[in-house]
Amino acid sequence: MAFQLAPTAIADGYRLDAHETVGSTNALAIEHARAGDPGKLWVVASRQESGRGRRGRAWATPQGNLAATLLLIVGRDLRVAATLGFVAGLALSDALDAVAPGARIAVGLDGGQSMQGGRFELKWPNDVLAGGAKLAGILLESTMISDERAAIAVGIGVNVAAYPEGLPYPATSLMALGARADAATLFLALSDAWSVAMRDWDEGRGLARIRKRWLARAAGLGSEVAVRADDRIVRGVFETIDEECRFVIREEDGGRIAIAAGDVHFGAVASAGAV
């Protein structure tokens, strides 16, 4: 099955640039923007050779996995556009529910107790988990293309056929979970779910709805966490995400701290201090 857009995505004006192999879908999307592309363009591949995650980390996309980037053109104020990562998480988790309703999920959160159920969860700020194991990652990148416009590349990588081993955290793939969906089937569902989630987001006016939906899928909500933010580690209980989608921790003394960026660890890893 070749990559294709859902009818809802086509009706909403999205376009498709599909490849078997690319260097990086995010990089290619930004190239399109600099060449004058108007946005609402999905750049998709079943293999990328130089993908990357947050903080420049490598993100492997072997043949059969999904690498998808949505190019959007927005105004110069990027604060609201930054919340598109939460839209992406919701759209992807909805798409996963659609293509893998019977997936076997029974993995612990960062080494914690085993969790049973068929629910895909969202780990702040940019991961999708299957019972605590990383299934997908999301990366937003931006660049100014004029004095008044910016290009946003919403990158989404999903372990469909394979997942990396030897990582400091558990990982999984749709195939390992028993799902039969391939990358093209998942992308078709993703393009549909994205259109629905974007209508909820409503150019940022519906962020409260997005936040509520995201919290309903949040991994580790109410549990002990450790967050590495810049050069320090903050420990406490994951209480919520605030109106700006920052990660809110309740510390042992009852104080609350909101974190805009950092690496989150749950359960046994947080308790052991191994971050």
UniProtKB/TrEMBL annotation:
InterPro entries from the UniProt entry: aa-tRNA-synth_II/BPL/LPL, Biotin_CoA_COase_ligase, BPL_C, BPL_LPL_catalytic, Transcriptional_repressor_C
Domain BPL/LPL catalytic: residue ranges: 15-202
Pfam families in the cross-refs: BPL_C (PF02237), BPL_LplA_LipB (PF03099)
Entry GO MF terms: ATP binding; biotin--[biotin carboxyl-carrier protein] ligase activity
Alphabetically ordered keywords of this record: ATP-binding, Biotin, Ligase, Nucleotide-binding
Listed EC numbers: 6.3.4.15
CDD domains: BPL
Gene3D superfamilies: 2.30.30.100, Bira Bifunctional Protein, Domain 2
Catalytic activity: biotin + L-lysyl-[protein] + ATP = N(6)-biotinyl-L-lysyl-[protein] + AMP + diphosphate + H(+)
GO cellular component: cytoplasm
Top-level lineage group: Bacteria
NCBIfam families linked to this entry: birA_ligase (TIGR00121)
Protein name as annotated: biotin--[biotin carboxyl-carrier protein] ligase
Source species of the chain: Kumtagia ephedrae
Upper lineage: Bacteria, Pseudomonadati, Pseudomonadota, Alphaproteobacteria, Hyphomicrobiales
